[in-house]
Amino acid sequence: MRGIDAEGALARPWLAALLLGAIAIAPLLAAAQSDSEIRPAPYQVAWQDLEFGAIIHFSTNTFLDREWGDGTASPQVFDPREFDPDQWMRAIRDAGAKYVVLVAKHHDGFCLWPTQQTDYSVRSSPWQNGKGDVVGDVARSARKYGLKFGIYLSPWDRHEPKYKDSAAYDDYYNAELEELATHYGDLVEFWLDGAGSAGHVYNFKRMIETLRTYQPNTVVFADTALFEYGDARWVGNEDGLVPYENWNVIDRHGYLRWRPVEADTPLRKQHWFWHPNDEASLKSLDGLLEIYDHTVGRGAQLMLGVAPDSRGLLPDADVKRLEEFGAALRKRAENDLSLKHRATDAVSEAALDGDPDTFWSAPAGSNHAALEVDFDTPVVFDHALTMEWLNDGQRVEKYAIEAMDAKSGKWTRVADGQAIGHEKIDSFSAVTATRVRLNILSSTAAARIREFQLYRWGDRR
Hints:
The structure is a single chain. Helix content is 27%, strand content 25%. By secondary structure, it is of the alpha/beta class. The chain folds into three domains: 6-32, no CATH class; 37-333, Glycosidases (TIM Barrel, Alpha-Beta Barrel); 337-455, Galactose-binding domain-like (Jelly Rolls, Sandwich), CATH 2.60.120.260. The strands form three sheets. It has an eight-stranded parallel β-barrel. It has a six-stranded antiparallel β-sheet with strand order 11-16-12-15-13-14.
């Protein structure tokens, strides 16, 4: 069927009115959708399953004891004599992270790859006689250690003269983005940060079109204000804290989109770049576990900032803390009490088997249901981990975790909430029971639960 061109529509007033009417009501139709009807793209589902990533800050700031560069630093200061991205990746992998995002260019404009767009890059540094490529080396190392790779390319550029001319800078930025999107393999995430900007108006639409031309399955991280251009949203702080129960769908101007949360926080308090004589800022193991429970445990991604030092190595203390963090997370996951449950039906088994690729589904058409776990002998637990199957949208609106009192035979509520989402970790006083249930009190459609796990963690270690 041939399309109707604008000229033809104008020649038929009734048709033009019909087209204009259709355009006018489109936002209303979008607004008429409910949150539960919005579904994630497959690449968003895969990204949420990664749960924990690391963002790496390493640039001229590293050598000048700075957090924010002003674009005047000489490329000659960049000379990491012991540069070893394998050391970074081993520590990041051992921490339990599944992906890394490298800051390829921070706000100072210095580029960590040999871009053809400017001389303000590693090409002008003494490092590897100007023939090095940090982005390429880190990408290769990440994949070597089983980590997915992404980039952060700052829109704000305090060095580039073209920045004063929006159109010229748009060309410049998109040329840099095209280099990164075509030379370094699949990108799991693209960080789009709007910090600074000095009144500059960015062509975000063009940026995303450039990225999508070469990287159709990259998750774009952006502030919620950049609603049209992102796949994931900022939590609103850099503390590693999700202060609310997390619903993945957000509404802006009557449009609904699946925008899961990523919570970023540095390994060292308030410091994204390495600084000398800064050992006291390293976060404690207990603090990191608390951060994990308030990010991943509230359905968000955890993005932990790590920073190589002026040698080109992660400091020994940082490596040790990352290893301790990963070991603690693995230890916590070792004793899933739900795996000791009494044999049950195949449908319930899918949520109790330790396999997130299977799921329990409540009866078709139900808005209330319960998943029960029975044990031959009493179990003692103080945490529950629940995962919702989100491919068809987020459905659970209210739930409770309940244990049956052995003496009275009555169910006692030990935890409850308004949302589960990708993953929810509930903490409560220790409970002893032989029967436990996840009670779905309200759902928009039949609830689907990937995992329902019980643990005795005691203190955070």
